Amino acid sequence: MFPLPPRMSRRTAFVGGVAALVVAGLLSWWLVPLGEKTPSGSVKFSTGVTSGVYQRYGDLLKEDLAKDLPNVSIELLTSEGSQENIARVATGKADFTIATADAVAKYQRDNGPGADRLRGCARLYDDYVQLIAAKDSDITSVQDLRDKRVGVGQEGSGVRLIADQVLAAAGLHPQKDVTAVSAGIDTMPSRLESDDLDAFFWSGGLPTASIQELSKRFDIRLVPLDDALVDTLHHTAKVATRYYRSAVMPADAYKKAQDGTAVPTVAVANLLVTTDRMDAELTEGFTRTVIRSRDRIGKKVHPAQLVDLRTAIYTDPLRLHEGALRYYRSVKP
Predict the structure, then answer these.
(1) Exposed e or buried b for every residue in 301-312, given b needs 16+ CB within 10 A?
(2) Which residues contact 8 (CB under 8 A, 6 or more apart)?
(3) Quick one: 232 exposed, middle or buried, by C-beta within 10 A (0-12, 13-18, 19+)?
(4) Got the DSSP string for 8-31?
């Protein structure tokens, strides 16, 4: 038999064991920081059309959410866009979505079902209104769209909402003065190229991949939307128009289409939206991932680079969800 270790060795072993437990505890604390819990469950995230920025952003965000919230199952739902997204979340058919501020304001004004339950998580990036026509066409202003075949977005999209407002501000009736074609970004570029459309509206981040690809194979023009048009929009009685602002598409947004010239236009903020039904812990984690994933997603979806912690809290016309507010308080310097 082996001899029993001396008393001092036993004491040393005991002290060593305690030390090991302390180290293990500290290591556990380091790997799972305080305040960063791991919620569980499943959520539905309503995005957009298959080739749009919302859907591409959603695909990449889902990858990061899977890492940060491993016990949460994320299902992406394609949609026609902002207006459908808001209705889905408000009525419980989806849990999170991206939508433009004007679409949110319109849904609230119309007293849509569940409108009072909507909450904001983050202001993301701005959508820019892009009016696209063939470079050799005679369309150089919104007024030139009279009697033309114009893609105005799908019925439930944010594009349809803002296209109707822009047409009206230019003195054109959206249904009577143009041939309005209900189509999305997944088909409008090819329809312009095949002369099935004279022009189309798109509202999205810069650059939008479908338009960028179109500009490389077909000569297009970005039709300017000047400050006077924005002033007219602001003077209408519609609540949604207060969320539009004058903006400029940089000269290099679509290099082949702009000939080195910046183009004036209209912009509107995108919001990450949920409702007061959503668990605060899960919403906090979701919001954290959205902010943290900016750089990685921004390498593939350029608008995501514009997500900024300093402006993310400004989710007007929605007040912040309790969980999102917790996150912003936790990172406040």
Answers:
(1) bbbbebbeeeeb
(2) none
(3) middle
(4) HHHHHHHHHHHHHHHHHHHHHHHH
Give the pLDDT mean for 113-139. Answer: 97
**For 242, phi and psi rounded to 5 degrees?**
-70, -10
Written as six digits, the tokens of 183 are 């189509």
Residue keyed to tokens 């400029």: 248
d(CA 259, CA 110): 42
pTM reported for the whole predicted model: 0.85
Predicted confidence (pLDDT) per residue in 269-286, tens digit: 999 999 999 999 999 999
Please report the pLDDT score of residue 2 as a whole number.
Answer: 44
Contact 57, 122 (CB under 8 A): no
Q: Tell me the pLDDT band of 1, cut-offs 50, 70 and 90.
A: very low
Tell me, rounded to whole angstroms, the distance of Cα 289 from its chain centroid: 14
Q: State how far the alpha carbon of 86 is from the alpha carbons of 90, 100, 168, 272, in Å.
A: 6, 9, 24, 10
Contact 202, 216 (CB under 8 A): no
Q: Could you count the other beta carbons within 10 Å of the beta carbon of residue 273?
A: 28
Measured distance CA(296)–CA(300) in Å, rounded:
8
pLDDT at 15 over 60: no
Strand-pairing partners, residue 128, are: 204, 267
Q: Which residue has the tokens 């299902």?
A: 75
User: Does 235 have pLDDT greater than 60?
Assistant: yes
Chain position carrying tokens 């959520």 = 43
Q: Which amino acid, one-letter code, is at 223?
A: V
